[in-house]
Amino acid sequence: MKKLLYVFALAGLFGFASCDSPAEERAEEMEDQAEEVADDMEDAAEDADTTAVIE
Q1: What is the pLDDT of residues 40-52, one digit of tens each?
Q2: What are the CA-CA distances from residue 36 to residues 5, 14, 33 (Å)?
Q3: Mean pLDDT score of the chain, rounded to an integer?
Q4: What is the DSSP string of 1-55?
């Protein structure tokens, strides 16, 4: 009986440890947004017309 309870307790700990916290989810979302902004800035830099007009 004690072994069974021990197994259930360990399973519960592993299940709890694998859950994402809300703070971790927010951090991942912010990281994704930062990557998107960096990609957009890189695309804009590539598309920018950098030719000089000399008169």
Answers
A1: 888 888 887 667 6
A2: 47, 33, 5
A3: 79
A4: -HHHHHHHHHHHHHHHHTSPPHHHHHHHHHHHHHHHHHHHHHHHHHHS--PPP--
